[in-house]
Amino acid sequence: MRIRMNLQLFAGLQLFAGENNNQNVRSYTKDFKELLTAVFEKESYFSDFFNGIEALDGIQHNAVAFSVKTSDIPVAVGTAYSTDANTAFGTGTGASSRFGNRTEIVYTDTDVPYSWEYVFHEGIDRHTVNNDFNAAVADRLELQANARVEQFNTHHSKFISESAGKIISGGAKVTKDNVADLFNELSKYFINAKVRKGLTKVAKVTPDVYNAIIDCGLATTSKSSAANVDANTITTFKGFQIEEIPETEFQKNEVVYAYVTGIGKAFTGIETARTIESEDFDGVALQGAGKAGEYILPANKAAVAKVTVTGA
């Protein structure tokens, strides 16, 4: 069940417009950014994949969100230190090194673009709103923030699915009889991918997979498991922190997203969030526009896996 934000936290929202109070246009860009990041922290299903979201306000209309410096030059490993008389000495003076050949390290700038946009356009008429005008603006901004986070969930699910470096088949359906083998395969993959110990691994699972884990017979107190069958809860299984999320948050025929936390980056740029007096009715138009996107280093895709089913 999704929980609405407490509007009292933003009860002073209308005051943020400051000196614009007597003007036709009031900017709520900074306020909307604060609302959006707060709602994202509470309502995003994949916040841990991105370690939150980076929100910028007042961005200019351009395609590039930021740049990262990358280098695909492999690490050079020499065989042994040379003690040859003509290496760095003798005839090799000034023309060779006893450490071996030197590799020059060069980084390139990789531009990360925004990949999708969002807008909203609503109207609040003083004659029909039937509520305190400023409270209505605050309420609608909060609801718009919730709607944007729903969009983030949809885009982030697709992004994680496309970023998976490993696809594991769960057969026709994941059940209590095959779920343990499935997570054994996931665990083996992350170890062989050389994911360092100490990093947090999570598995977002559908309700069917979640129930299969609890019912599989391994999640018992006799095995020092943290599962509670009565409460239908389990926190960890085979080294993964387990979180049950709606199956609508997965791509078609996908039932598990497993990954190391904090390996991607989610970002949004808010171009505008404002109210402007309307000439068509006695009130204001509430308008907003922004861009968003996601990024993961290619090497980090090895720490992302998904489980698919045929759905037969």
Q: Rounded to an integer, what's the Rg over CA atoms?
A: 26 Å
Order of helices and strands: EHHEEEEHEHEHEEEEEE
Number of helices: 5
| Number of separate domains | 2
Kindly report how far apart the N and C termini lie: 29 Å
Provide the CATH architecture of the largest domain.
Alpha-Beta Complex
Give the low-confidence spans. Answer: 7-22
What is the helical fraction, as a range of percent? 10-25%
The percent range for strand residues is 25-35%
Question: Total strand count, please?
Answer: 13
Structural summary, described in words:
- The longest helix is centred in the middle third of the chain and has 31 residues, at 133-163.
- The model is unreliable at 7-22 (pLDDT under 50).
- Helix 1 (29-43) packs across helix 3 (133-163).
- The chain starts with 24 loop residues before the first strand and ends with a strand.
- It has two domains: 22-71 and 109-312, phage-related protein like fold; 75-106, no CATH class.
- It is α+β, with helices and mostly antiparallel strands and 312 residues long.
- It is built from five helices and 13 strands.
- The protein has helices spanning 29-43, 47-50, 133-163, 179-192, 207-215, and strands at residues 25-27, 53-57, 64-70, 108-113, 116-125, 166-169, 201-205, 236-237, 240-244, 254-260, 264-277, 283-296, 304-308.
Short description:
This protein has 5 helices and 13 strands.
Could you outline the blueprint of secondary structure elements for this entry?
Layout: E1 25-27, H1 29-43, H2 47-50, E2 53-57, E3 64-70, E4 108-113, E5 116-125, H3 133-163, E6 166-169, H4 179-192, E7 201-205, H5 207-215, E8 236-237, E9 240-244, E10 254-260, E11 264-277, E12 283-296, E13 304-308
Helix pairs in contact: 1-3
